[in-house]
Amino acid sequence: xxxxxxxxxxxxxxxxxxxxxxxxxxxxxxxxxxxxxxxxxxxxxxxxxxxxxxxxxxxxxxxxxxxxxxxxxxxxxxxxxxxxxxxxxxxxxxxxxxxxxxxxxxxxxxxxxxxxxxxxxxxxxxxxxxxxxxxxxxxxxxxxxxxxxxxxxxxxxxxxxxxxxxxxxxxxxxxxxxxxxxxxxxxxxxxxxxxxxxxxxxxxxxxxxxxxxxxxxxxxxxxxxxxxxxxxxxxxxxxxxxxxxxxxxxxxxxxxxxxxxxxxxxxxxxxxxxxxxxxxxxxxxxxxxxxxxxxxxxxxxxxxxxxxxxxxxxxxxxxxxxxxxxxxxxxxxxxxxxxxxxxxxxxxxxxxxxxxxxxxxxxxxxxxxxxxxxxx
Length: 376
Prior knowledge:
Blueprint: H1 2-17, H2 19-39, E1 47-53, H3 58-69, E2 73-79, H4 85-90, E3 96-100, H5 104-111, E4 114-121, H6 125-145, E5 153-155, E6 158-160, E7 165-172, H7 180-210, H8 213-217, H9 223-251, H10 261-285, H11 289-305, H12 318-324, H13 328-342, H14 346-375
Parallel strand pairs: 1-2, 1-3, 4-7
Antiparallel strand pairs: 3-4, 5-6
Helix pairs in contact: 1-9, 2-7, 2-9, 3-6, 7-9, 7-10, 7-11, 7-13, 9-10, 10-11, 10-13, 10-14, 13-14
């Protein structure tokens, strides 16, 4: 450990002496977070729907068929009671829940009016309005299809015709529909990934270019010590950047922090092992910083575009959703949104964190093996 400490100290001194790198490390992520949080937006297709049909009649079944037949909703579950609604929304199994109460058909026949409840995961603020609008349009079309005669009601402003199907909406997790609450946690993941991966990918190639790598290889230290000394400084710096992002998210954008910050940092610590290990692996398969940059940007683009930051994973083709399961960005984004916005606990995010830990161990093992093959 004494050897590792001296090597880590050397790495920190090398980083701190490069003022241009210091500006890039700390200023660029802050500016990007402030800009992208106001510019990024998203859309949602084929909303995953949980149907709670307590009526179990022909009319209620017809309503479900119209919701799924319009290609804007995809029914993934049907329950007879509302007991599992909270869990399904919390774990992102579904984005919306349609609750058809008992006596639904009877109310339509006798009173020409019935109530349907739509429960939305409102953490995706911008998408919530779209989902609600789509549901209202489908319900209105179904009411017309049933040829329901609308009762006439007089009020202070004149004659109105209330809709025969009254959709009651309840928003969970993000009732104000502020899309920044959804986007900023994901942007923090993106910026932490970019900085951590790029810095690590260029580290060993820089040593190779300036001719100091061979000198380090003949020094009396193990390669495990060498790799640990290379990763620890950037692991600490990335955590500092992540902390700055959390502070900005809270103070500037008012991001809710409903869950445990300890759990957030646990996930960040594990996730950074994956990112830095991947950066180390890139540095072992390239020989110049330019090559490392090209490979790193290729990996980053794939990670970000298939990680659910801007395009929901649920809107991707089936093959892309399958590939995305191996994307560490997807899992860390899920953890960030679930813990900060929804207040989820370890029982909800434990599996993604465990998956990240396994992935980190695998990529570090691969990077160490590759480094030995190329420099021993």
